[in-house]
Each structure stands twice: as C-alpha cells, then as structure tokens.
C-alpha cells in the first residue's frame, strides 16, 4: 500500500499521486515546537523584562521548555520514511529548504536553553556534588549521582557572591538572545508551510507570524496548566504530611502565590491570543477579498467541508470560549484550568486545520481529499502516524519533565540572591 | 590572460556562492569550479500533442513496468487525465488509476465509488492530457529538499538519490503538478526522470516508445536541428501552471484553459 | 580562576567540532555543489551513474524484428503497425535469455483501450472505430475472431 493511502479518501478530480502525505505527526510537530517556544518566551518575560510577578513560573517554564525541546523533533522523526537517515539534515544541509535550518536552529536553541539552565542551577549542582563527595561510603546510586553532578558542574566550583552575580547577568543575556531564537524556531516552522507555493492554503507570508503568536499562546497555556496541576499535587502532598512540612510552607501560602501568578500570566495569554486571532482573521478576510483563482476551492473547504473544525472547534470552542472565561472578573483556578485546556485545544485545532486543511483539496482545485486519522493501529505505520503516536508525543514532555525535575529542583529551591 | 573584469566576475561569483558557507565547510570551492567545466550540451524537453492522445494508457503501463513502480500500487510516474466539458459549462475530469488501463468507459469517475454518465450530445469538448514530471528549469521540489537528495542533473532532468532521501515528503508538497510520490518499495521520493537510463543511452523514454499515436515526444532544446526543439521554438505551445514560476519543460500542443 | 561564564560555550564548540568530524566520515566524497549551483545542484554526483545503470526493459520493435520477422512484417503492413510489439507481448527485457517466454495480454480490456468508442471531439479517440463491449460477443477474446496482426476485419 502506498504511503498515505490508508487515511486518504479521494473525491472528484484528484491526480493519482496525491495523498494526505503529512498526517497527524506533522500536526503535532508545529504544536510541540510551539509549546517549546511559548514556554521559553514566558520564562524570558521575567528574566529579560523583569516582570517580577512571573518569577515563580519563569523557572518552571524554562525547565518545561527544555523537556518539550526533546519531544519536539520526535514527531518529524516518526513521520520520516527513513528515520535513521534523519541525521542527513545535519550532515548535508540544503539551506534553500526551510527544513534544513532545523538542525542549526534546533541545536542553537537547545544550547541556549541548556546554558541558561546551567547558570540557573549551577549553585545547586556544586552544592549537591560537594555534599555527595563528602559523604562517606556512598551507595552505587549515590556514586552515579555524584558523577552526574560533577559532570554538570563543568569543572567550576566557584559559587562566590561575585560568580553568582555573573551567572545572573549571563542568564539575562541568554534569555534575551533566546527570545528571537525561540521565535525563529517556531517562525521557521511556519515558514515551512508558508513558503510552499504549490499549496494555496499555506502560501502566505503571515504564516510564520501567525505560528509564533499561537505558539506563545499555547506555550503559556501549557505552562499554566502544568503549574496549576503540580501546585495542586503539592498542596495535597503538604496537607497530607502537614506535621513534617508545617514550618516550611503552608497550604494557604502556596495557594495565594498560585492564584496571583495565574492571574498575571492569564493577562499575557489574553494579549497574545488577541494578536493570534487578529492575524488569522486578517488572513481569512484577505483571501476572501482578493479571491484569486484558488479561492473557490478554499471557500468550499473553509466554509463547507471544514466548517466544524475551523469555526466551531477552533475559533468557537478554542478561542472565543476561553477568551470570555478569562475576561470575566474574579478569575478562579477552576475556570483557568478549563480556559487553558480549551486554548490548548484551540491551538491544536489551528495546526490541524492548517496541516490537514491544506491537503483537503487537490492541486487540480476540482477535487477533495478526506483525512481519516488511524486510531486502532494495524501496522507500524498506523501506529506511529496515528492516534497513539500523537498521544505518545504529547505525553513524552511530561515524563521528561518529571525526570528533569530530579536534576533541576523546580520547587523548594531557595535562591541566595 | 584574464582581464580585470573577468577576474572581478570570477571573484564575486566564487565569493558570493561559497564565502558565507565555507566557514562551516559546507561547500568546497574547488569542487564548485570543477563542476563548471562548461554548460551541458543537452537540455531534455518533452512535447505532448493532446490532439493525438486517445487515452489508451499504454504509456502508463510501459512506464510502470520500465521503472519498476509496483503495477498495482496507486501511484505512477506518468498518467493521463480525461477532461469532459459539457454544454451547460460543467467540467468533469478523472484519471482512474492514472489511466493505467486506459479509458474503457464513458462514465466519469467521481471518487468514493460514484460515477457520472455523460451523454454524447451534452459534450462540448472532451480530450485527454498526458501528464508527467515537467523537469522544471526552477524545480521547487529541489529547492525544498533539506538534504540534497534530489537535484537537477546538468541536462535538466530532476533526479532523486534513493540512498540519501530521508522521506520527509517536503518535495511532494512543493510540486505544483503532483508528479511526486513515495515509492512503495524503497520508501523514498519518486518521480518521472524521463527514463534517465534510456535517454542517456540514446533511446526514447518508455512512454514515448509505447505511444502508438506519437502524442508524446522527447527532445533536446539545445539542438537547433532537433525536431521537437524546432516545434517548441516555432509553433504555439503551452505549459502547465506558469503562474508558479517553475518554468516547466514539458510543452503541450492543444492545451485548454480548463487543464489543471 | 578564569571566567566560568564561557564554559557552556566551550561545550557547544566541542559538540560542533564533533559533528564536523563525523560529517567528514559520513558524507560521500562526491557530494557537493555541481553545475546548477547550490540551490538546484547540491547532490552526490555518483547518483547520476546509479540512474544510468537501471536495466532497460522495453527494447522496441527492432529488437523483435530479426527472430520474429514473419510477425513483424505482417503487422507492419497493417494499421496496427503503430503499436509496439511489447505493448501486448510485455517487455522483452533480455528475452529469450530472460524471460524465455513472454506473457501475451489477450484480454478484451487491452483492445478496448483504443476500441471502446469515446466520441470526444478534438481528440484522436473519436476517429478510432469502436465496439460496445457489452453487446459485441461479450464472452469471447477479441483474438478469437480478429487477428491483431492483421486487423482489417477479414476474420481469421
């Protein structure tokens, strides 16, 4: 069976080689990179612009961005017909292709986030390494931890006041550098689509900008969601072991911090949401107004076949409803959770409608293709490019986040400065 | 002796092409110059006469056999489209299985198992259009390949390196003509290459040879005595989707506005 | 003690050097920029030869002419002279060495490719005589009555 044939249904005049070659994993790819970029921008709002209210979530967002970073390229690798040749992108990059930039941009972005994390947690690495070194008769587990933390110090054990000051400065510079790189990382994901002149729906110079805006929206939303969930879990943890932790942090104290941060972050979410929606609507209006050759088929897709996906699920449920939820006064935690979940869904649907919607019509402009996402896998292809592959990708950063939180303590970490 | 002007041109050319990337050793300037041993004397082009095509699909059959595209796989390097325009201004078009088995019914395939019967007296115009890779002068599929697995050979034919293709599908997306697909066996991007193994031996392509009606012809546009080149140069011919700026090199006689 | 701020940078530079070293081993030596420049000519040159080496399957009627001269001559005198032998007999490849015997397509579908009547003006198809396959001796192969090498209706 030809790749793509399983999930493609053709209607009317479609040329023989046309299939929906870019399936659910290519929807996941910009969605996940968007989350990376968004989480990083959120953390930079504190580090660069000194928005104090975001201090608590900034550290959290940075570690989460790092976890997401490892999950972001996996959808592409799962999508490749030759996953093991993926390294060719680094070996013989062809920079006239938007995808070729992937290796470079991804690597430099990863280097920036990793360095920022290093400066942020250097003190912790040094202290842990020293504590483990002094410890007598270490267990095997502790030996491993000792080696990991020794490596992580990169041979620097200077945690004097002056050295930490320089760390802080370096974080600020890196975060400042990181914002354009994060925007580039995601803007270029938009460019991958926006520069395909053969595709009438994709080709617009607005595509990278729209992608960046919705990326920031989704990144903030996911950080808020994860932040709330982890905070709630900790609250449960604290109230259960009250005796032990009583003097350290009270349940009420956590709660008051939490809602304040959330309300502040929600404002930024709204701001970027407005930008994203305005740009998307501008694109839609412009297409209708100029009505070039492809408009007939695009209109039938946008207002006809994909109406539910675009106007009800994406704009209605994913944008309008959370917009109202956030604008209503006295934002509560529960309402925020509903809001951010809907926002995440809305951004996912936007990616879906761009990637799948762009392949919903034929190059002939006289035929249509329907996408049926494989749910029950019956071979490796329908597993990795189906429902379970996509869900696996979505779960992956959370697992990584849990692993990273062992190395980078996200909570209970007292800063000296 | 080289003049100063030539030297300047040379220097600018080399610097412009190589300088920004030599730092990363992406491009070896020596190799770049070695390749410029002189422009190729051949530029393959194709000529399709849609008046002559009868839609027998023998070209598709020959192409699939010649180029080892699994016969029953629903992808093909070349295909034939049928266009039927009715008197009430409607367009019906289809290409069942890429016309591998020709057109042996007057019913138009609408997909999803539906067919449209069109009466003879309702037809305003109807014709067949063979399609294949246009071997564009500015191939967008090559531009977007992230690894250099597809490229334009010096004689203009766009080829795919099956040992280097990662199978991302970007080239398939970038082609405005739908000429590309994934090979069902090799899982790499696949396309018509004007039967490169045949034309480089002085033979005709499989589709040209199989066509009983002379609807397909291949030639060298750089040879003024080539009959195909002469027709393209002196007669009225059309190309597909010129608005994309790809400069396709498959020319058509009797092209209609309705041809997609 | 020196400035520790540049430590991560050293790590990054180290990784880049490692990648460049790996690259020099991994990438074939004939990979580079060729005639059409970096945009269209960035490839492994040996691949052109790979494509030229593909086996030819359709040999053309001249390949058949010498051994099957009787068939060749009879069809060349008929309106079917325009049809290549291999369109019905299958690709010769290295026949008779490989395959020793070709599989002939005698199906009605093969003849119908041209002889199913499609009255399309401005297409050569309208000029070919056709039959209605549902009414015209539907259960017989065409070659039962018609000799494809001598198709001038003088039934076999």
Please state roughly what percent of the residues of chain C sit in beta strands, choosing from under 5%, 5-15%, 15-25%, 25-35%, 35-45% or over 45%: under 5%
State the helical fraction of chain C: 25-40%
Profile the largest sheet of chain B: 3 strands, mixed
Write down the domain tally of chain C.
2
The largest interface is: B-C, 71 and 49 residues
Looking at the overall shape, the CATH architecture of the largest domain in chain B is 2-Layer Sandwich
**Helix and strand pattern of chain B:** HHEHEEEEEHEEHEEHHEHE
Q: Could you say how many structural domains of chain B there are in total?
A: 2
Structural class of chain C: mainly alpha
Mean pLDDT of chain C: 88
Low-pLDDT segments of chain B: 11-24, 32-36
* CATH C-level category of the largest domain in chain B: Alpha Beta
Largest sheet: spatial strand order of chain C: 1-2
Strand order of the biggest β-sheet of chain B: 11-1-12
Largest sheet of chain C: 2 strands, antiparallel
Percent helix among the residues of chain B? 10-25%
The run of helices and strands of chain C is: HEHEHHHHH
Q: What is the count of helical runs of chain B?
A: 8
Shape descriptor of chain C reads elongated
- SS class of chain B: alpha+beta
- Multimer state: heterotrimer
Can you put this structure into words, describing what you see?
- The complex is a heterotrimer of chains A (417), B (260) and C (156).
- Chain A has helices spanning 24-47, 55-71, 74-79, 88-91, 101-134, 140-152, 161-194, 206-240, 242-245, 251-290, 295-305, 307-327, 333-355, 380-384, 387-407; strands at 8-12, 367-371.
- Chain A has 417 residues and is an all-alpha fold.
- Chain A has a domain at 28-195 and 390-417.
- In chain A, helix 5 (101-134) packs across helix 6 (140-152).
- The radius of gyration of chain A is 23 Å and the shape is globular.
- With 260 residues, chain B is of the alpha+beta class.
- Chain B contains 8 helices and 12 strands.
- In chain B, the strands form 5 sheets. In chain B, strands 11-1-12 form a 3-stranded mixed sheet, covered by helices on one side. Chain B has a 3-stranded antiparallel sheet with strand order 3-2-6, with no helix packed on it. In chain B, strands 4-5 form a two-stranded antiparallel sheet.
- The longest helix of chain B is centred in the first third of the chain and has 19 residues, at 4-22.
- Chain C has 2 domains: 4-52, no CATH class; 61-144, no CATH class.
- A two-stranded antiparallel ribbon of chain C has the order 1-2.
- Chain C is elongated and about 95 Å long.
- Chains in contact: A-B, A-C, B-C.
- Chains A and B meet through strand 1 and helix 4 of A and strand 3, helix 5 and strand 9 of B.
């Amino acid at each position: 069976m030809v790749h793509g044939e399983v999930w493609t249904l053709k209607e009317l005049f479609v040329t023989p080689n046309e299939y929906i070659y870019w399936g659910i994993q290519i929807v996941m790819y910009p969605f996940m990179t968007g989350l990376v970029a968004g989480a990083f921008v959120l953390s930079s709002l504190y580090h660069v612009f000194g928005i104090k209210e975001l201090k608590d979530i900034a550290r959290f967002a940075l570690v989460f961005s790092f976890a997401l970073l490892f999950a972001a390229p996996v959808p592409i690798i799962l999508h490749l017909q030759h996953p093991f040749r993926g390294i060719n992108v680094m070996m013989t990059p062809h920079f006239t292709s938007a995808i070729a930039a992937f290796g470079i941009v991804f690597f430099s972005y990863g280097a920036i986030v990793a360095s920022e994390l290093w400066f942020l947690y250097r003190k912790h690495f040094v202290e842990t390494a020293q504590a483990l070194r002094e410890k007598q008769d270490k267990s095997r587990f502790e030996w491993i931890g000792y080696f990991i933390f020794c490596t992580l110090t990169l041979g620097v054990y200077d945690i004097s006041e002056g050295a930490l000051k320089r760390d802080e400065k370096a974080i600020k510079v890196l975060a400042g550098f990181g914002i354009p790189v994060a925007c580039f990382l995601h803007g270029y994901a938009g460019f991958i689509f926006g520069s395909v002149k053969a595709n009438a729906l994709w080709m617009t110079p607005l595509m990278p900008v729209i992608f960046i805006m919705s990326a920031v929206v989704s990144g903030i939303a996911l950080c808020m969601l994860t932040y709330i969930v982890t905070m709630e879990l900790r609250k449960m943890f604290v109230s259960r072991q009250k005796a032990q932790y009583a003097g350290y942090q009270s349940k009420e104290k956590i709660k008051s911090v939490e809602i304040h941060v959330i309300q502040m972050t929600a404002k930024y979410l709204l701001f970027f949401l407005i930008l994203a929606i305005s740009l998307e609507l501008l694109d839609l209006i412009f297409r209708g107004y100029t009505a070039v050759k492809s408009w007939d088929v695009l209109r039938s897709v946008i207002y006809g076949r994909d109406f539910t996906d675009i106007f009800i699920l994406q704009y209605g449920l994913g944008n309008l409803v959370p917009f109202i939820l956030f604008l209503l006064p006295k934002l509560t935690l529960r309402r925020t959770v509903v809001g951010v979940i809907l926002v995440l869904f809305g951004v996912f649907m936007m990616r879906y409608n761009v990637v799948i919607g762009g392949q919903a019509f034929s190059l002939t402009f006289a035929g249509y293709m329907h996408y049926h996402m494989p749910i029950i896998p019956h071979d490796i292809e329908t597993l990795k490019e189906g429902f379970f592959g996509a869900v696996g990708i979505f779960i992956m950063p959370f697992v990584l986040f849990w692993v990273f939180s062992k190395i980078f303590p996200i909570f209970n970490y007292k800063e000296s400065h | 002796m080289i003049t100063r002007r030539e030297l300047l041109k040379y220097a600018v050319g080399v610097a412009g092409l190589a300088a920004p990337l030599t730092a990363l050793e992406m491009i070896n300037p020596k190799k770049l110059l070695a390749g410029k041993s002189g422009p190729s004397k051949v530029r393959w082009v194709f000529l399709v006469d849609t008046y002559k095509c009868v839609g027998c699909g023998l070209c598709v059959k020959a192409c699939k056999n010649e180029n080892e595209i699994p016969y029953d796989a629903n992808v093909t390097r070349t295909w034939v489209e049928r266009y039927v325009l009715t008197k009430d201004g409607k367009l019906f078009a289809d290409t069942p299985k890429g016309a591998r088995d020709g057109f042996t019914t007057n019913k138009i395939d609408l997909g999803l198992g539906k067919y449209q019967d069109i009466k003879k007296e309702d037809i305003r115009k109807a014709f067949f259009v063979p399609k294949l890779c246009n071997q564009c002068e500015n191939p967008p599929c090559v531009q977007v390949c992230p690894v250099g697995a597809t490229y334009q050979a010096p004689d203009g034919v766009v080829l795919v390196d099956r040992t280097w293709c990662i199978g991302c599908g970007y080239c398939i997306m970038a082609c405005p003509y739908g000429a590309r697909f994934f090979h069902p066996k090799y899982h790499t991007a696949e396309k018509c290459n004007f039967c490169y193994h045949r034309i480089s031996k002085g033979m005709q392509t499989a589709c040209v040879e199989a066509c009983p009606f002379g609807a397909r012809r291949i030639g060298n546009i750089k040879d003024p005595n080539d009959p195909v080149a002469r027709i393209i140069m002196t007669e009225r011919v059309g190309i597909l989707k010129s608005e994309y700026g790809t400069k396709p090199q498959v020319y058509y006689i009797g092209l209609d506005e309705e041809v997609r | 003690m020196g400035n520790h701020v540049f430590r991560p940078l050293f790590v990054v530079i180290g990784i880049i050097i490692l990648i460049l070293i790996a690259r020099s081993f991994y990438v074939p030596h004939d990979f580079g920029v060729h005639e059409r420049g970096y945009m269209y000519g960035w490839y492994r040159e040996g691949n052109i030869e790979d494509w030229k080496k593909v086996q030819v399957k359709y040999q053309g009627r001249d390949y058949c002419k010498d051994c099957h001269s009787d068939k060749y001559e009879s069809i060349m005198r008929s309106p079917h002279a325009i049809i290549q032998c291999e369109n019905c007999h299958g690709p010769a490849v290295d026949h008779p060495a490989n395959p020793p015997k070709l599989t002939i397509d005698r199906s009605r579908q093969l003849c119908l490719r041209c002889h199913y009547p499609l009255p399309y003006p401005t297409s050569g198809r309208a000029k070919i005589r056709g039959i209605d396959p549902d009414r015209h001796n539907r259960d017989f192969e065409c070659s039962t009555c018609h000799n494809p090498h001598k198709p001038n209706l003088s039934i076999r």
